[in-house]
Specification:
single chain, mainly alpha
Length: 88
Amino acid sequence: MKSYSDLQEDLEQRRKELQSKQKKQLEDRKKKAISYRDIVAGNMEKEKKRQQKMRDQEAERKQASAARAKMKDELKQELKQERESEKN
């Protein structure tokens, strides 16, 4: 049979093991929570970049379309001027 002091030592050892196990579980949960937040934040950042890229592309398309329309008008104007100068 174990002595009282041996039982106390065993109990103390188990208590320490349990505390260290609980501490490790808590740290693991914190890491998981942080990594989940990082993932969500990363996904949100990617979505923002994607949305911005789409807006930029749309702006470029509109600008290119406006430039083509302007060039078309200028060409029409030049042709009109050439026809008028040929008539004179």
